[in-house]
Structures are given as C-alpha cells and as structure tokens.
Amino acid sequence: MSSQVLPQSFNFEGQVALVTGSGRGLGRMIVETLLKGGAAVALHDINEEAPAAFGESPSLTALAASLSERGGAKVTAVIGDISKEDDTKAIVKKVEAALGPITILVNCAGGDIAAKGGKPNPNDALNISLEDATAVMNRNFIGTMLMCRAVVPGMMQRRRGAVINFGSLNGHVGVSPEVVYGCAKAAILHYTRCLALEMRPHGVRVNAVSPGPTTTARFLATRTTDPAMMDGVSLERYAKPVEIAGAVAFLASDQAGFVNGQVLRVDGGMTLFAG
Ligand SMILES: NC(=O)c1ccc[n+]([C@@H]2O[C@H](COP(=O)([O-])OP(=O)(O)OC[C@H]3O[C@@H](n4cnc5c(N)ncnc54)[C@H](O)[C@@H]3O)[C@@H](O)[C@H]2O)c1
Q1: In whole angstroms, what is the distance from residue 129 CA to residue 144 CA?
Q2: How confident is the model at residue 72 (pLDDT cuts 50, 70, 90)?
Q3: Angle separating helix axes 143-158 and 179-199, nearest 10 degrees
Q4: 271 falls within a domain
Q5: Which is the catalytic residue, given 12, 141, 181, 191?
Q6: Does residue 2 fall inside a structural domain?
C-alpha cells in the first residue's frame, strides 16, 4: 500500500480528523491523505493487532509511530469497538483530549464479517444465521450511527464539521451472497441522507462514498482476483485505495462546502444508473 502515490491533497491545516477502522486498508490510506493535507489525525481500530491481520503493519501503535515520524505529523491512536456505545464515547473523549475538537469524521470501519470472524456462511437472504446478521448490522450500520451520535453533537455546537460514511456498491443493487452486508450499507447510505437533512441548519455536512471493488490487502487476501482487473489505463478494473481516499478528501474539504447528503460512487463507472 505504501508504494501507492498520494495525490496532492486538499488543505486540512487546523482540522482534526478521526478515521475509524484506519489501522489498515482504505482507512489507513485516508489517514495518509488527510495528514498530507495538514490535518491532525486519529488512527482508530478495534484492537492493537488489526493492522497486522493482512501484513500491513505490526500494530496500531507501530503504525502511529511510523506516521508521526513523517514531517511533524500530529497523530494519535485509539482503540475501541464501534458497535459498543460506551466504546464510541470513550474513543471521542480520548481523541479530543489528545488533538482537540473533531472537525472531520470518516466512518470507514466495517466489513462483511461473521459474529465469530470470517465471512458469514451461509450468507444469503434466507439462510444467514440471526447471530451473523446481527453482527454484520452492528459492525456496519449501528457502528456508523453510534460514531455519528458520539461526534456530531459537538460539531453542531461548534457549527463546523464534515462526516463521510462508507457504503458499498452492494448497498445500491441487489446482491447475493453478502445480502445483509448490502442491507447494512444501504442503511448507512439512507442514514447519511437523513442526518444530512437534520444537520442543514447547523452547518455540518454529511456525505458518503460507495467504493467499487478495491485492492486493499484484505480484499487481495480473501478472494480470487481477476488479473485483467488489476491495473492499466482502462477504468474496467479494481479501484486502488488511493482513488477512494481522494474522493473522501474531496468530500471532507472546503471545496465540497455545499455538498450535503450525497453518495459518491467511486467505481470507475461500473454502475451507471441514475440516483
Ligand atoms: N475494499 C473494498 O473492495 C470495499 C468495497 C466497498 C466498500 N468497502 C468498505 O470500505 C471500508 C474499508 O474496507 P477495507 O477494504 O479497507 O477493509 P479492512 O478490513 O482492511 O478495514 C476495515 C477496518 O475496520 C475495522 N473494524 C471492523 N469492525 C470494527 C469494529 N466493530 N470496531 C472498530 N473497528 C472495526 C477492522 O479492524 C479494519 O481495520 C469498509 O467499511 C468496507 O465495507 C470496501
């Protein structure tokens, strides 16, 4: 992942960003992009070891240390489960004590993960276990909602803030398998629109990105990939993490100052329906 070239970032000087699930994958690339723009950034993950799961970094603390070494970047690391309300409150308290009031919240943590780890199996509409369905909803939709509830009231008071939630193409079209994951992502996208409506009087923007298949370390390690989709000038390929991070940076930036309640599909045009 570190071999990817980060684009010139937007200006985030003076901003404080919390990126959930940023010990690895897309979240980590978003952290690097926001740091490049001058933000102080909180790395977050469910435990110390999450960055090591697919070989991206030995630990969250080690990742924070290596990012801090780059040109005076202000980084802190915090651990907690976004599906537990007490954890979300503690995460925000710790981040704001270390870096100051949060102005950018990126709800990146999530995934199609069963209650006991791995993918739910079965993973279709009629047979997924209730335990796995609940775990997937909690890890994605409920977790995103709880993080918004922990951060957004402060943004409202300060009349300043940008929230970027994570959907997926699976939340826009009928899919099988990964049905409940698609439902959880669709719920996140609709929650985004509803919260954006409620935040209009308060000057807090709430948007979402929906990535297409993207070559994070987890993605590469957990599925059979099509070599023809890996690279090239064509848009008929997988996204690179840096391309998703660029879209998040735009939505977080002042250049998107009047963009609210929108979902940006970042999939190279793989899906081209209206809405
Ligand atoms: N990579 C893709 O192809 C793709 C496509 C569409 C959407 N997405 C979405 O993008 C986001 C990032 O995906 P990724 O590919 O980087 O995956 P990833 O598994 O590498 O990163 C997800 C991170 O979220 C953390 N996390 C999961 N559950 C958590 C919880 N309950 N509390 C705290 N942290 C938790 C994980 O530990 C991990 O670090 C996810 O929301 C995913 O659903 C990814």
Answers
A1: 22
A2: confident
A3: 10
A4: no
A5: 181
A6: no
